[in-house]
Amino acid sequence: MGRGRLSDAYTSGVYTPCTVLLMSIGHTLLGLLESGPRHGYDLKRTFDEKFGQDRPLHYGQVYSTMSRLLKNGLVEVDGVESEGGPERKRYAITDAGITDVSQWLAQPEKPEPYLQSTLYTKVVLALLTDRSAAGLLDTQRSAHLRMMRILTDRKRQGDLADQLICDHALFHLEADLRWLELTAARLDQLAKVVAP
Amino acid sequence: MTLLDSRTAPPAAPESPKPPARGAAVLRDLGLGVRFAAAGGREGWIRTLLTAVGVGLGVALLLLASSVPHLLDERNAREQARSETQISDSPDTNAPKSDSSVLRINTTTEYHDRTVAGYLMRPDGSTPVLPPGVTGFPGADEMVVSPALRQLLAEPGNELLRERLPYGITGTIGDAGLRSPGELLYYAGSDTLTPAKGGHRIDGYGDSREGDPLPPLLIVLTVLVCVVLLVPVAIFIATAVRFGGDRRDRRLAALRLVGADIRTTRRIAAGEAMFGALLGLLIGLVFFLVGRLFVGSVEIWDVSAFPADLVPDPRLALLIVVAVPLTAVLVTLVAMRSVVIEPLGVVRRGRERGRRLWWRLLMPLAGLAVFGFTGRISAYEYAPEKPFGIAAGTVLVLVGLALLLPWLVEACVNRLRGGPVPWQLATRRLQLSSGAASRAVSGVTVAVAGAIALQMMFAAMNADFNRMTGQDPTRAQFAGYSEDVTGEAATSAIERFRATKGVDVVIGSVEAYASKPGDYADEDVQPTTSLTVGTCATLRELARIDACEDGDTFVVHPPGDKDMTAWVDETARKGKVVEIGSGGKPMRWTLPADSPTVQGRKDPMGETHYGIMATTGAVDAGKLPGATISVQIRVDRSVPDVAEYVRNTAAKVDPGMRFVTLDSVERDRQYASIQTGLQVGATAVLLLIAASMLVSQLEQLRERRRLLSVLVAFGTRRSTLGWSVLWQTAVPVVLGLAVAVAGGLGLGAALAWLIEKQVADWWLFWPMVGAGGALIALVTLLSLPPLWRLMRPEGLRTE
Amino acid sequence: MIPEGSLLAAHDLRKTYGSTPALDGASFSVHPGEVVAVMGPSGSGKSTLLHCLAGIITPDSGTITYAGRELSAMSDAERSALRRSDFGFVFQFGQLVPELTCVENVALPLRLNGVKRKAAERTALEWMERLEVDDLGPQRPGEVSGGQGQRVAVARALAASPKVIFADEPTGALDSLNGERVMELLTEAARSANVAVVLVTHEARVAAYSDRDVTVRDGRARDLEHAV
Q1: 3-class SS at B223?
Q2: Complex ipTM, two decimals?
Q3: In chain A, how many domains are there?
Q4: Tell me, what CATH number does C27's domain have?
């Protein structure tokens, strides 16, 4: 178990929050569509309102994502409106789309630091779509713990440098875990806020 | 340049309040302490209450002790008031016969080891004097009785006593006529009593003479009894003040955290202790007053008292009121010297240096030195200052023992290693802090050592007394003597004793004077000796007779007494006439010439008989003028109530018969009452100490609740912890008892030497050791239920 | 009901204190030599579960099986004997007998099992050596640091060669470094001696020393990895 590998495994995951976020925008928009067909503009507004407080979504992002989802057959065009304005498409989620959202929610994220935004999105979506947010959090906790167990194991067998690096990761993961626990404890409160 | 360097205070800062004056601060802190004690929540209250109840018990005992002088005064006064008025210095002088005079005879008897005092009285006229407490003179075959006797007679199972007092009850003797509420007393009326039957004429009650001053030895004893009982009480009060001390220390630490200095904490602690002690004084007063109400119905070891007799001596009471709170404060301050209360907790110190031995040895040695200076004291010597020397020496030795104990406990316990788990837990605990245990046990030590020493002293005195009387209770257990029963009745009386249930042997003899006939001038003494008539069996008990047949007569010489031998031979001339009987008309009788001469021997009463002895076939006992009978009775002790059957026979033969129980220990009544007081007090003190040990034990268990639960989790057996509790009590108590026994024996031997007696019994400490064992068992047993309760797993949940 | 090969298993435990349910249908199992972390928020019933599993308290209903024997069918004395012989305990604090020396504390379970003093203390010293506290032998618990004391407690739990160690927040009163060291030594010693460990903790980093974790929530225990 070399030191290089260990640090690689860790650093490769640390500075990719944006990618993670981009990858989850499609699932998020899909999830929003589950409650009913919407216009692209509606989707952007709802997304900004629920998840994009400090970074609103670009229109371009919405439409590029939607076209990717259309191409993958996860959404379909429900109708086109053009009441005295630009042409507006209404999107609806397909059965394949619903399955995709479910899978995404059930799949724990790879435990790594700075996950909160993705996890938060998932929790809110789960609440919005009446899926089990608690189960989602539990699954994530398990995944985190498993990771921590692996790191602990590596730490035990490694030298001081390994120990220090592993500890850094462990403390971060622990912070995530605490956040998961706290969120789990506040699910009822959160549900009232996001889906009144 | 930092802020700390600037000398000028920030202008906006408010002026800090001036520290209060010293006196005011002291008052404030004391008041704070009182408030903590009074309003410290449930825990605080429990602690205060424990201290107060402990102090209260001690105070009640002290008040009781301080009432003893008044109690004794009152009892003596009543006793004096019912004694006959002496009309001359000679006690046998009869009062002149008058309308108010009364003929009476002491008919005091014993029933089931209790004395039933009584008089048979016959009025000479129509207005006989009445003893105190009696309103009407009892008619013939009637009696007035004390309430206790009335109750005893009414109880089932006392038929034998009713048979002995076959009089109708016509009245009750009032309190004024009784020494104590439990006294058994009766006055019975008679119409047959005469001076010839032993009646004594009196004409008034109330003995105005000063009572005899207490002999010096009794003063020594009384002072010692007080010391032996009160030192443990003082130790107990000092222990009670420390109840809950650990919790208090932690609270004071919390006060230090918010800025109280050490002096303040001490004053607060003093205030708390003072409050507890003052509350204790009140509680003690309540205990005393309430106990006083019931004291009349309580009787321990034949001691009872009228509530009205229990009045504390005002000076002693004042001393108690001042000394108890002062002691409480002092003890608290001394106890806090070994503890440093830091803001973040309590640090115990003094562990680094073990207890020192040398100064603890000073006190007992000083005590022995005082004995040496005082010197020996004889029973009849008048030396008013010596008792106090002895008492002071004893106090020094006893307190010295109490001081020696903590050192000894520590020294012994520190050498203990290993052993089974409970033993290990207990000894390790004691090694860590043996102070609390030693303090409680030092009370036991003083009580037990003192009791042992005093009992040895009693035993030495009694042995002395017994040596003087020389009674031999294996040959006879009862002896009677009557002047009333003469003639035919004498022989039949002996037969009646013989026929009584449980009687093995009766040494019954009829005695009369035998003198050499002739006329003698006033200055000459008529040679006189005694004639004893009895069966061969009886005579063999009185003289060394080999061959005896009915009809034989003997001349008996007192062994080793030449003068008396000559005197006997002067009277008892073989083949010559002797006159028998005194006063009236003597009977003439010829002593057979072939009467052998033998040596006398001591009878069971310890008296040597000599003179002329005749078998019943040689002299007709029924016809001897002025004869008296004397019986000595050996019984089969296995027959239940045998003593009562014999006494009933005696009462039937002659109610005025002087009838005594010979026992190996015949005590002077005054000595007996002191010994009784000692036993009562020692029991009370041991109970008190058991209570304080129990409280500290429970306190300790409660603080270890969590640890106990952890031990239960391990699967520790209850019995393991039970045994450890037992050892924890037993080790210090056993050490304390060892010190007490050694010290007590030494002190007892020293005291016996001082009063010029020999130690009669080295084994008197066994009962006290037994009491110590009972104390261990009691404390352990009472600790077990709370221990079981604390051993439940719930303790793991309290964080 | 009882998972295959498990050493200690509980099924559908219920326990109520007054009117508050502490356990409400909790199930649990541990295999020989396995380290299982029991996690959950305060008041979730973790400690109650541990106390039930160790036979310290009896559940109102449900079954606990240890090595094929039903725990609730045993008398108090039998369960105490079982705890002496087969179980070891580590608690958060206040578990060492303050008046006994450290080595005597470690030897205590052995001695309660009837081992002679000398032999017990020799074994105790060996375990203290493994936990790197053999130099504390003659000292009293009050004279050693929290971390040292906790290692002494771990040595004590292991000394009588138990089959299961119950550890209730064993690092709760320690800082990270000491806590980690205690956990490392505990799990290492337990694994090498094939001792199962039931570890109650609310700290993820402590739980990370386990092979598996179980979460107790509202009196129910869930094994998330194996149940879903």
Answers
A1: helix
A2: 0.84
A3: 1
A4: 3.40.50.300
